[in-house]
Amino acid sequence: MAPRDSAATRKRILDAATAEFAQAGLAGARVDRIAERAEANKQLIYAYFGSKEELFDTALEANVALVLDAVPFDAFDLPGYAAALFDFAVAHPELARLVRWHQLERPGVLDRLPQTAKSNQRKLAALIEAQAAGKVTDALPPEQLLALLLTLVHGSADTHAGGADPLAVQRETLIAGIRRLADPG
After folding, report:
1. Contact 68, 114 (CB under 8 A)
2. Proportion of the chain above pLDDT 70, given as a percent
């Protein structure tokens, strides 16, 4: 019998959980479906993750890690960051759905998850630095500026303007809006 590869099994479970939670949320998701999709048993899922809620949180954090790796935050180029984050969100729509479900069903928990909390602290420190350097407006507190930026990016990735290339139009509108929002002048 071949030895079990726990890292590969955990990844399969997290991938299956991401798909299930993005589709059905926490309340609608079924551990049986996650186990079947991951080719794992339910007991193993609970052994690795403890509970369905902890699996939901872990799946979200794993996806946040993908974003952080793919789209580094640059407080001195917020339009460029917004464009890269928009592109990532369009390419990975399951992440936006996962975040929305998480915010609906576990309000306030996202900001307390370790990776998300650390990422937000780094982003806020960088925004404070950019504001102090006069490169980003200080008309808004950094927490509000970050929240507004993320809301605009994720909302824009979900809605598309009319025209020949609606996605490109939406992307360019987002970049122009973030440029104006962040402009210190």
Report:
1. no
2. 94
Handedness of CA 64, 45, 18, 97 (dihedral sign): negative
Under 8 Å between Cβ of 67 and 94: no
DSSP structure string for 69-111: HHS---GGGHHHHHHHHHHHHHH-HHHHHHHHHHHHHSTTTGG
DSSP letter for 134, please: T
Cβ-contact 57, 50 below 8 angstroms: no
> At the topology level of CATH, where does 53-182 sit?
Tetracycline Repressor; domain 2 (1.10.357)
Render pLDDT for 82-93 as a digit per residue (tens, 0 to 9): 999 999 999 988
**Residues, the chain:** 185
